[in-house]
Design goal:
By secondary structure, this protein is an alpha/beta fold. The chain has one domain: 3-Layer(aba) Sandwich (Uracil-DNA Glycosylase, subunit E). The protein has a six-stranded mixed β-sheet. Helix 1 runs antiparallel to helix 4. It is globular, with a radius of gyration of 16 Å. The two termini are about 30 Å apart. Bound molecules: uracil and iron/sulfur cluster (SF4). Uracil (URA) binds next to loops. The site of iron/sulfur cluster has 14 residues, from helix 4.
């Protein structure tokens, strides 16, 4: 099963790397399709590649990535067992926010990745990712602070998936208060994934 998912993900990555569907292709060094376990139970979705990600072609390898690695440790998970990607796969110039057109153009790849991996849990890192995922179920997000740490059941292509929105690691880097909220959300992730299947979900939903 993982072999066929792996092949699908590789095909998506190949398409991403030659994609010209939005203007971000003009300024990228490398597209960043995402990486991890094709059979991951947990998928993490950030916003967009930054400087280091654009150079290396890999997601979350800069300082936000270091914090993400620390958070995964709190959840007793490794980068190898999850799948990490972003809402847009190419770096916006000067790390500006991706715009609606770019997000819309790139959504096709994100949805294809979710469909291939069929994760049990999607952790949305930050406002953009949360908006896109909850938007699939017609839910509006006006403030990430209001929705973070709260589980939502979503249908993606008829597959049920639990969405856990949290803050973007870059936002928590230099703010201890936000960092402790991020930690709390990763502890919740750890609670959910302990055991062979997600435990105690009904308690939370
Ligand atoms: N920030 C993101 O949203 N994604 C990355 O890959 C790196 C930093
Ligand atoms: Fe294509 Fe997405 Fe890159 Fe835009 S950001 S060029 S849609 S891969």
């Amino acid at each position: 099963m993982c072999e066929s998912r792996k092949a699908v993900l590789e095909a998506i990555a190949k398409e991403v790397m030659s994609c010209t569907k939005c203007q971000l292709h003009k300024t990228r060094t490398n597209a960043v399709p995402g990486e991890g376990n094709p059979c991951a139970r947990v998928m993490l979705i950030g916003e967009a590649p930054g400087y280091n990600e654009d150079i290396q072609g890999r997601p979350f390898v800069g300082s936000a990535g270091n914090l993400l690695n620390q958070m995964l440790k709190i959840a007793n998970m490794s980068r190898e067992e999850v799948f990490i990607t972003n809402v847009v796969k190419c770096r916006p110039p000067n790390n500006r926010d991706p715009n609606d057109e770019e997000i819309e153009a790139c959504k096709y790849f994100l949805l294809a990745q979710i469909k291939a991996i069929k994760p049990e849990i999607i952790m949305c890192l930050g406002r953009h990712s949360t908006k896109v995922l909850l938007g699939l179920s017609g839910l509006n997000v006006d403030s990430i602070m209001r929705v973070r740490g709260e589980l939502k059941k979503l249908l993606v292509d008829e597959n049920e998936v639990i969405c856990l929105p949290t803050l973007h690691p870059a936002a928590a880097l230099y703010n201890p208060r936000l960092k402790s909220l991020l930690e709390a959300d990763f502890r919740l992730l750890s609670t959910l994934t302990t055991g062979t299947r997600i435990s105690g979900l009904d308690r939370w939903l």
